[in-house]
Specification:
It contains seven helices and 16 strands. It is of the alpha+beta class. The protein binds N-(5'-phosphopyridoxyl)-D-alanine.
Length: about 280
């Protein structure tokens, strides 16, 4: 496997960064994850816009133009012979003697890796996945796709230990924020589809944004508004979305079945729409 490190394509096993990189020492950086399907980046414009936004919010300059970034991504996929897979892109404030405040010299460090991911299955029949609920212990700017993922990693590990796929997080008022690495949606007992409105407690998911058009096209009753853990527990359907998980129903929550315990109708319809958009 080949990685991209600051202008060079190197063997992944030999790709390394300086131990004084601020990403390594302070988590001073941001990232993006793209899904490519047969060489095409899905929701590409949304991911590039979010990259620019995350970067801007922490005062990092663009390492190159978006057009040049696209060239690097395509070249990395070519060199790895990966057409369908995930691209991980990380941008940090680069190498400087350790000091919390920003260094005078601006030398952002850009790294990228690619790995294959099988194409999504044709349908959701037989799919089941569990989730657990946990307090959201992250910082107050989760709208920035920061590389500081310790609370997310801890939540995901707790989920794994419980035999679950995702941890669904809730804030101090008992309202659901999002998953450890996904956006969360429910179809409530009132048959209304909901996902939390964007604020600084959640990442503006690209899959979430793209799906809003599908929601409208399906004619599903939808409200962009928060919901409580209680509403989550009483939901007919719960599903998560992300570039890596697409649209994935949660069929068990904290050990109890969600709805009738099988993937729901709304999730299945949106999944079908998602597949149609891929092809
Ligand atoms: N995570 N919320 C969080 C906290 C996330 O980390 C992600 C994505 C999402 C969904 O965003 P999108 O639809 O743009 O992928 C929501 C990526 C995939 C990751 O960290 O691997």
């Amino acid at each position: 496997r080949i990685a991209y490190v600051n202008g060079r394509y190197v063997k992944l096993a030999e790709a390394s960064v300086n131990i004084e990189d601020r990403g390594y020492q302070f988590g001073d950086g941001i990232y993006e994850v793209f899904y490519a399907y047969h060489g095409r980046l899905i929701d590409e414009a949304l991911h590039f816009a979010r990259l620019t936004r995350s970067r801007g919010e922490i005062g990092l300059a663009a390492p190159m133009s978006d057009a040049a970034l696209r060239v690097v991504i395509q070249e990395l996929m070519r060199r790895n012979r990966v057409g369908t897979g995930l691209i991980y892109l990380q941008l940090t404030r680069g190498v400087a003697p350790r000091d919390h405040a920003f260094p005078a010299a601006r030398r952002p460090a850009l790294t990228m890796t690619v790995r294959p991911k099988p194409a999504p299955p044709e349908g959701l029949a037989g799919w089941h996945a569990a989730a657990i609920t946990l307090p959201d212990e992250r910082w107050g700017r989760c709208d920035i796709k920061s590389i500081n993922l310790l609370p997310n990693a801890l939540a995901r590990e707790a989920a794994k230990q419980a035999g679950a796929l995702e941890a669904i997080l809730f804030d101090t008022t008992g309202m659901v924020t999002e998953g450890a690495s996904s956006s969360i949606w429910i179809v409530g007992a009132d048959n209304v589809l909901r996902t939390r409105a964007l604020d600084q407690r959640v990442l503006p998911g690209c899959t979430r944004a793209a799906l809003l058009a599908d929601v409208a096209a399906e004619g599903v009753t939808f409200r962009e508004e928060g919901f409580s853990v209680e509403a989550l527990r009483g939901a007919r359907e719960v599903f998560m979305t992300s570039a890596t998980s697409f649209v994935k129903p949660i069929t068990r929550l904290d050990g109890a079945p969600v709805g009738n315990g099988a993937p729901g109708l709304v999730a299945s319809r949106l999944y079908t729409r998602y597949l149609a958009r891929l092809k």
